[in-house]
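[Automated response] Your request has been received and processed.

Submitted sequence:
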Amino acid sequence: MDALLKIHPLDNVAVCREALKKGTVIEGITLLDDIPAGHKIALKPIVAGNWVWKYGFPIGKATEDIAIGEHVHVQNLKSGLGEGIVPEPTLDKAASSVIRTPPVSFMGYRRPDGRAGIRNEIWIVNTVACVNGTSERIAARARERWCLPGSPIEGIQAFTHPYGCSQLGDDLGNTRNILAALARHPNAAAVLVLGLGCENNRMDGFLKAIGEHNPRRLAYFNAQEVSDEIDSGLEAMEKLVEYASSFQRELIPASELVLGMKCGGSDGFSGITANPLVGRVADWLSSQGGTTLLTEVPEMFGAEAVLERRATSTKIAGEFRGMVEEFKDYFRRHDEPIYENPSPGNKDGGISTLEEKSLGCVQKGGQAPVCEILSYGKTATPGLGGLSLIQAPGNDGVSATAMTAAGAHMILFTTGRGTPLGLPVPTIKIASNGDLAARKPNWIDFNAGELLGEGVSTELVTEKLVKFVLETAEGRKTCNEKNGYREIAIWKEGVTL
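Generated structure:
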């Protein structure tokens, strides 16, 4: 098995599959440093000020002369993103369409409004943080009563958050839009909206944000207006359970699936194993006519060309450029450096610059066409046959919640370092390396580290993950569901009163 991974013919660095000692001779190259697994070594001499190439793209500039066999990382490499023109390789023209594969179906839930869901749950969405504890108590009591073996109710969840009051302008709008989108989500057969009564995110305005709704599916009340909020909650829940119990799984085309693609705690293998693997699932879903969601806009900086070339129209390409520039302006407004990335954990795992992180990150979109650009809190179009790009930051909780609000039935979450985070929807954790998968089986659902093995078929591993996705759509529990890790996070930008 080759110890070094050279990803693209243009690259002047390679990635070490495993930790290697100084003095080791690999493929005719003598290592001049100890090299951790997932980190880079120089394949050619690189002169100070010249570009370092990985994935067939420049990932930064050498800050000093780098010799063959030397460790290439933060000590001798810096981002080139703020320094004017960055060279680009010749890019293949984006495919105008994807190759179609035979249609596939799964057993899901058909909602009265025509949408598909993959879970038959009841969600409690509270308008304000003041009733977080109340909503959690109602959910716990309701689970004890109605989430029994054989019950058609697959879960009862409360999604707490710190917002809804003392907010103004866009912040209040963001909170309202995200919570309203969650209340509309098709994985929720029924929803209880719980308010306090005096918050900025008032019940009447929030119900307008949700839009037209079935009173059998959605119940609501303010805690200040009832004598016992727990009893009132359970009384409302009983009627919601009766309604939700009427749904049964039925055959639904995979074209109606919406998948959110996320990476968090990335390492040097994420862009080689887990993210490209998820990208192949995105290509499969596009071939079915389904919708894939991508966000983490700051982790598109330096990789814009990869996505822009796949835009289905000049209008979409222009909207994508506008989304990226708007996010850079967001950094500037707060006097923060645009390129303050990657994180300490990313660097420990072998990622040196934002360009390197971004070029690995965007691989989660595969080669699927970019069909739609969405602002934060908006809902994606089902049946796109490609990618919908969403305006949201890279923060794991915020970005994954934004994709959930946009309609993701599940999140495919790749990681090289590991995280227990779970979202309102099933969150498939995909390890970039086998060590993480072995150490954290209670977090990790799928091991993309198999792709580092000798003779492992990319096609076979892709088929295994597609099968896992379809099984999850049909009810297979992910680790986050088994652990009870179900959280949301909302993007806050402005003033708190």
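Summary generated for your ticket: The radius of gyration is 24 Å. The longest helix spans residues 314-333.
If you did not submit this request, please reply to this message.
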